[in-house]
Amino acid sequence: MQYLLAFIVAAPLIGAVAALLPVRPSPDHRPSTSRSAAPDPVTGLKGTSPDRAVLRHGVIVTGAVLLAAIVLALGFDRDHPSTMQAGTDISWIPALHVHIHLGIDGISLPLLLLTALLTFLCALYSRFNMPAGPSPKAFVALILVLESGTLATFAVLDLVLFFLAFEMVLIPMYFLIARWGGARKQAAAWKFILYTVLGSVVMLLGLLLIGVKSGTFDMVALATDNGRGLTHSTQVIAVLAIAVGLAVKAPMWPLHSWLPEAHTAAPTVGSVLLAGVMLKMGTYGFVRIALPIAPEGMHTFAPYLAAFAVAGIIYGSLACLALTKPGTKGDLKRLIAYSSVGHMGFVLLGIASMTPTGVNGALFANIAHGLITGLLFFLVGALKDRYGTVDLDTLAGATGAALYGRAPRLGGLLAFAAVASLGLPGLAGFWGEMLTMFGAFHPADGLSRPAFLTFMSVAAFGTLLTAAYLLVVVRRVCMGATPKEDPQPHGIQDVQGYEALTWTPLVALTVLAGLWPAVLLGLSDPAVQKLLAGGKA
Q: Residue 41: what pLDDT?
């Protein structure tokens, strides 16, 4: 099992190198005089044979990683989900006590599976719908490097390796936005990289402070010690520094402003991976590092974290409501980006409660957000492919989308994703938000209950705002009659085969997690109990 986890982390990186290798044409392959002369009969891709081959390579590599992750999950000891499993521990830099230490428990396993699934679905989607831009070889290689860095973030158990993996994803995402993005892509890519790099520099100082003061960078040993080897002032300084970097990636208001720009400019698969897995790296860091390693420092900042979290919930919802107003030229991708600020606010609120209920809710909401928002970005990308725009006024105009009449399956999927995102009971979005508010209702000992009751009330009001803007989106995009003088008299394509293949797993898992929340909570709860108890549970 230990080699399987190492394979999962390293395989995408090896696959990225292989994708960049020159491809020797087959003996019967004749180079075309025009690069776009003969589109692929299956995919419609107007590229050369090597271009199509590298896209297949991306699907094969990410598929192999997903299969390995499923095998790892099937072999995971569910009777002991709080124990680190599939471990690897190799001394890497002895002078600094840095180890290549890998392992998974009930907290990291679901995030590992989510990353492997979403990356595979993105590679599959790109096989049939490659975004316009430079060479597909570079595109596939960047996707694979991004996957390797994200998987490593959830699998490493050394603070130095965590930082390296945390930073590893920035360069590929920068180039995905800057080279394959839409309008204002260069500005959005630069804003993304500047925010995240500056936050990470501050975070590195906090990680080094913990390692130097405690004498080890091993996250398991530090969590077991539960901050007893660190003074109160050291913990406060370390948490403050680490939280800055994690909050930028989370994204926490008011450090979120890079996110709407990045999502608006990014290609569809870039937005799916950014929202689906990269945002989870920040909140995962709070759970894996700040809570168990520096609990006193976390306790000091918990009320402020909760306050920023609920501010983000309200701010994100109000921004989305403003974008839904007629005449504002609201961009649907921008709207979903702002909705992510609100949804991740619930995750941060659950973490700030420092209770098993709240942290379990935060972890559940992480997975639910990845599934639902990933689906939403896929659907909005499909709208842009069909209409050439995701401007809400255009889609809701007299000759707009009217999806229920023109493309009923696409309209039904958009409505499903919207009601899942607003937290409809029976779907995945409900449990995470409910549990985080329950955690705020009874915060950890020493935290002000009146303050957290106020935070809970504000968050509950945020759920009403969320329902309001999502239902407005459904009404404006899906409803309405097709005009008599329709500029698209033959209609638009409904859900195509490759789209159904890509989106069905997300729909199925959203329903499964909503109807059977124990499938996630049964894994995370024992691990969370142990983490909060300093490894004694």
A: 42
